[in-house]
Design a protein that fits this description.
Blueprint lengths: L1 H6 L3 H9 L5 E4 L5 H9 L4 E2 H15 L15 E3 L21 E4 L5 H6 L5 E5 L6 H8 L3 E7 L3 H14 L2 H6 L2 E4 L6 H4 L4 E7 L5 H6 L11 H21 E11 L8 H15 L3 E3 L3 H6 L14 E3 L10 E8 L2
Parallel strand pairs: 5-6, 5-8, 6-7, 8-9
Antiparallel strand pairs: 1-3, 1-4, 2-3, 9-12, 10-12, 11-12
Helix pairs in contact: 11-12
Length: about 325
Amino acid sequence: MTYSVQFEDLWPSIRVSLLSEQKYGALVNNFADWDCVSARLEQLNAKDFVSEAISHWELEAQSGHSAAPSPAYSPNLRCFTFARGDVSRFPPSRLGSLGVMDYYLMDAASLLPVLALGLHPGDTVLDLCAAPGGKTLALLQTLCCGNLAANDLSTSRTGRLQKVLQSYVPQDIREKNQVRVTSWDGRKWGELEGDTYDRVLVDVPCTTDRHSLYEEENNIFQRSRKKERQMLPMLQVQLLAAGLLATRPGGHVVYSTCSLSHLQNEYVVQGTIELLANQYSIRVQVEDLSHFRKLFMDTFCFFQSCQVGELVLPNLMANFGPMYFCKLHRLT
């Protein structure tokens, strides 16, 4: 009922896509024998959508067909996907010759917030709502994290995060990158470590729309959880505000959800910007991601009417998402 009003004629196709089998991407583990892993994935007729998009942009720039500036994106990420309309599955990841898993299977749209964060070598990074660990692992794959703090309020979920890191990242690398895993209340991070981080990822708890269609047990849309669901936007504002307060002036934050709801997406971003301006005199600017969107539009279906940030819509030909993300620049 809600989404038929929000998306109008697009909703029937989005709903069918959500009910269809989700597509996955294979995030190559840079701490494994990554070139051999990439070659093996290419033999499956999968393609690295990141390098393909960047190569395509570089060719256009060289030929003079594109006057657009180079989009800022996090480096060193390799993620293989099957072509649009190809519903092939990747085989399960296996332990490689270097003692870590070869690749991590994830919704490829989940990589977009990490790519949009635009990490630079040596950045201090906070993943405020880190579990179960896919985006934390992707942050480490950029090879840019000088220090990485990975936090999640749930101790059981941080346990899953620890297992992911142990399976994919060698111990000496984890220690070298000073990966710190905590289970603190993310809403208080601005008080704990204000003005500290270069880059912050705030991938908030949300209605997880795709999963909610499949799981009856403890479903967020149950009547017994109505109040909790209605309170989600307030929690999301508090987490995003804390993430921005933890960011140093001049730093960047990416806010993301896997929900289609504009109440959890654009409205949260706009509300948080107003909150920081009124209560803390902090100026925050939404970054234009139109060039970034153009870079990856061959792989993902973006919602063209999204007013603030970017929304990837599930599509039967490219059934990734939903994934909303918005890049914010803390100016003061």
